[in-house]
Amino acid sequence: MQDSWLNDFETRLDRLERASTGPDVVFADIHNLAGAALQCLGTIHDLGVCLMRPTGIEELRPDGQRSTPTEVMQAEIAAATEQPFLLTDAVTETSPARHVLTVSARLADHVFCVLRVSIEQFNAPQQTFIDGASAINDVVGSWLSRYLMSSYENLLTAQSELVNTIGRLHLSSTISAAASVLAQDGPAALGRCRIAVLSWHAGRYRIDAVTGVRSPNAEAETVRAIEDVVNNSHVAQTPIVASEWRPLDKIDDAGVAGAIAVLRSSDVAAIRVAALAGAFDDSADISSPKPNTSYPAVGRSGITPTVISVEVFANTEPPNELLLLQLFEAAGLVFAGLHRRQRPLLGKFIDSGKMRWLAAATALLLVLSICPADFEVEAPGQIVSTSQRRLFAPENGTINEVGFKNEDSVRDAQVLLKLSNPDLDLEKRRVQGEIDTTTARLASVHATRLTSGDPQLSGEEAQLKQQLQNLKEQKTLVEKQLASLAITAPFAGTVFRRDSQQELMSRPVQRGQLLLEIVPDNSAWQLEISIPDDSMSYVTTARHDSTDLLPVRYVVRSAPDRDWTTTLTSIDNAVETHEGLMTCRATALLTALPQTKLRPGTTVTARIACGRSSLAFVMFREVIEFWRQLRFAWF
Question: Which of 492, 497, 495, 494 is nearest to 509 (CA)?
């Protein structure tokens, strides 16, 4: 144990043994530790680890990939499994004298781990080197056994998930549903990766579904980056089922440099773009697919309808190639069926005669869009007199006398109502009492001033005169208020007040309260229309474009058997609230009266002519306006 190489070898062998049993150890770590241990025993040129199984021999590389050795190497490995070791000499241009040591370790029946070392010089005795290589191979074989066992378990689990995913794919009824299943459930079978399913839309592949996102955002940087890389892959012109992995650090295309930078920022290491069979030729039979058969992915148009992008992240092994190809093949068949299903449906539609109905509907829609029709805006209104008067209570009080009945004809200045106000009566008596008191006081002061000649009484006399004048003015004002309690007709006409005796007699009223309406004899009548605010723009536009007054067609709601016509004379600029709705008031004079005796407030339904428009707009204006509001709210 005095030789330094032996101590170093034992130390590194111990590190290798500890690492082989540790968690999260990859083959590259085992390979590096094994090479470092052998370097203590000699100068080695190359170290290779091979796995020999009944199905063949494959070399395990530190980068995780596997390759097939040459026929010479395969013969040496097969011979090494028949004996403890095999040491041969090889002469090459780079090293005239080189030894090749091949040692094997049995892992299971017909399964061997073979360590192949190219040696330039022994630092330890030859037998010691061979024994050390055998010990290292035992440790590497032990790790490889556990790794293979874990891989087989993971593969079984992944195959089970793959079967479930394929089953859900076949249950999908639409292309979008199948894309969602493939993107969301695919990583459960393939491992840690991101799957994006893209379809051809408007000359570009666009993402339908992506792993981890319920609904892809077309404006997201990652989504745009994946679309740019896929559209740059020229998949649509290549009839393939699956391409090769493309490491991002080896993609030097300036057209997708920004997209590659975005993907790198999300820790993506490599990407693989595959064309899924979505539009087969009629000669391709997909009902009974043959194993190991690559079906064309392009259709008659030369464009692949659906492609898939698989991304792997840094420090993550790529998905199992066999599982990946199986998923691609199964997804291709599903998408092919969904795409091909659209054509038979269209054929049945045409053959069943529904195409004629579609043509008829199209022609009808064209006629409705082209043929013009009169466009009218409907609005409620009422008939009112141009000179009618409303009489209000002049003061607070109680109605003592009602001198009319509803729709009575009255004379000018005829007393219609009499009110009483005890407060005004009391105020009149109070003022009259003060007037009497002040008058007596003034007479006394005046007589005293004349007899005594006292000059101070002159000022008091003047003050009493002024006070008496103010009291007389107060009396006049109170008398006017009392006189106004007798409400008279301002002109001869007809009085309107429903149930006047019952509604007004002995009723207390407040100042400003509406008591009755009176319409003069031979009064002119007009139509007051409340135009809804949402229809006002049509009326104002038509009024601005026309040099004539807009025609108005109306019908009295109590007598809807006949239409009447007039013209719109004025429109208010202000908008007001009427019964909870925003309306604009418009008026129209009535030249032809619908009845010989009209009542103010008679309700009508008016239609204002607003020019001509398409028949479709006239018939479905409310639907069109609702859609415009809905589109504005959404977009």
Answer: 497
